[in-house]
Write a structure and sequence with these properties.
mainly alpha, single chain, two-stranded antiparallel ribbon, 6 helices
Length: about 180
């Protein structure tokens, strides 16, 4: 921790993060076909899952896993960004995050590691289909769809979607 007189109040807690560069995950996956596309999606999933595993092991929740918060650098390293909503404990009565990637219970202000895993599933769905798993005309309809609608098959947007990716997305959705 660096000290800079007058810049940080005495006793303040803060962290310094790397300025991450790289491609958004959709750009990383774009143009890949067949097994190569599946490998790219699995690579992103594994990288985000590893970051979440580390965060959860030290008691942190990300609470805003989404494509905009992921980058794949030139070396192929997957980076999970933006800890602005991260918290140390389960939060109640604090509805935070990006609605398209929030688990149903997150809309009631309850978060735990499973809500991050749900968001990872939504991210993977979007990587494969080009849109989040649930889209609606307004916030109320979106919450209703996320909470009650069945998950559309990846094969609706791509008849060639591998069963393994379909199972992974469904498993992550059920984690919440």
């Amino acid at each position: 921790v660096a000290r800079s007189p007058g810049f940080v109040p005495e006793g303040a807690v803060f962290f310094v993060a790397e300025l991450a560069s790289g491609a958004p995950p959709a750009e990383y996956v774009a143009g890949k076909q067949g097994a190569s596309r599946t490998q790219a999606v699995v690579h992103v999933a594994a990288g985000v899952a590893a970051a979440l595993e580390h965060m959860h092991a030290v008691g942190l929740l990300h609470r805003d896993v989404k494509p905009a918060n992921v980058r794949v650098d030139a070396g192929g390293r997957v980076k999970l960004l933006d800890l602005g909503l991260a918290c140390v404990r389960t939060s109640v009565n604090d509805v935070s995050g990006t609605p398209h990637y929030m688990a149903p219970e997150a809309f009631m202000g309850t978060f735990d590691a499973r809500t991050d895993l749900y968001a990872l599933g939504a991210l993977l769905y979007e990587l494969w289909c080009g849109q989040p798993p649930f889209v609606a005309g307004d916030a109320r309809a979106l919450v209703r769809a996320i909470s009650t609608a069945p998950l559309r098959s990846l094969r609706v947007c791509d008849p060639e979607a591998p069963a393994s990716i379909e199972r992974l997305v469904a498993t992550l959705r059920k984690a919440a």
